Amino acid sequence: MKTTDAVVLDEPKIHEPTADAVVEPAIEARATPSAVGVKDAKIYIDGKFYSEADAKISVFDHGLLYGDGIFEGIRFYNGRVFRLGEHLDRLWDSARSICLEMPMTKEEMTEALLEAIRQNHLRDGYVRLLVTRGIGNLGLNPMQCKWPSVIIIVAAITLYRENLYRKGLTIVTCATRRCSPGALNPAVKSLNYLNNVMARLEANLADADEALMLNDAGNVAECTADNVFVVKRGQIVTPPVTAGALRGITRSVAFEIATELGFKTLKADITRHDIYTADECFLTGTAAEIIPVVKADGRLIGNGKPGPITARIITRFREMTRETGTPIFAEH
Ligand SMILES: Cc1ncc(COP(=O)(O)O)c(C=O)c1O
């Protein structure tokens, strides 16, 4: 697939994010003046760039009709895309799992994504990369859809306000169970997020920052868009993918950091009891980054303040995000 010719900017002209760029949760940024918090945003669809107003897809795309498609949320910091290779590997795994033939190579996808960021003149932000099944008829059979569509949206966002990183989040367990792998495997990052949306609604109704989702066995799976970690006596534990947790990229970075800092790490089933009795708890996700949890179902976690181990992991994570990644602009 052809992408537009790369424009390598020697001196990137950086847009200040608009006032709407930081909202809570910001990936649901208000629709005006810009849904993505970028002035004159450019959105990539199948090799061309469009303004926000002109970025449209068919009502017959099965991504819309059936949530049939896949996506990634990716961050870039300080002019570098963080863990791009891992995001593309997971996207390709999702595609393979749902028998979606990717319309471009990983190299072409990398170039399209970097060019989309350049076109939006940002050095820090978030990318939503979608591949829809494409245009079909009203029947759900994907065989009708001959051409998957690639959409790349670049946004200037942060998920939570900075004071929440200092104070920590409140979470509630929701009644909505995480999809069982036998029904719809949570390891596929698909466009069908209604399971998570239902859980998010419960968090909103309970006036909480996030919803904790259990699996059918009653063990902790994850939150609506984040992986969950507990710290107990210096050991750092997160549920395994078999519990219904996404193989989160920030989750694996948190594990790398924890190991580097000399902590014991473990992927094991945990229950709500383990969260209530943890010394510390935190969430990881590309959009949310690494953020402490201080209250679950009305119970204070530890002393009700973000814990010291979480703080060390966040500090190292911030260093890594600023110092590593795929360069977006020509480097001198
Ligand atoms: C359901 C779910 N769990 C966990 C995560 C965190 O994964 P990552 O760290 O790769 O963003 C996400 C976000 O992508 C998600 O949507």
Written account of the structure:
- By secondary structure, the protein is an alpha+beta fold.
- The protein has 2 domains: 7-158, Aminotransferase class 4, branched-chain amino acid transferase, N-terminal domain (D-amino Acid Aminotransferase, Chain A, domain 1); 162-321, D-amino Acid Aminotransferase, subunit A, domain 2 (D-amino Acid Aminotransferase, Chain A, domain 2).
- 25% of the residues lie in helices and 24% in strands.
- The protein contains 8 helices and 16 strands.
- It has helices at 62-66, 84-97, 106-119, 162-167, 194-205, 249-260, 272-276, 308-323, and strands spanning 42-45, 48-51, 69-77, 80-81, 125-132, 149-155, 169-173, 210-214, 220-223, 227-232, 235-238, 264-267, 280-285, 289-296, 299-300, 326-327.
- The strands form 2 sheets. Strands 7, 8, 9, 10, 11, 12, 13, 14 and 15 form a 9-stranded mixed beta sheet that branches. Strands 2-1-6-5-3-4-16 form a 7-stranded antiparallel beta sheet.
- Strand 11, helix 6 and strand 12 (264-267) form a beta-alpha-beta unit.
- The longest helix is centred in the last third of the chain and has 16 residues, at 308-323.
- Bound molecules: pyridoxal-5'-phosphate (PLP).
- Residues 73, 196, 222, 225-227, 246, 248-251, 284-286 line the site of pyridoxal-5'-phosphate.
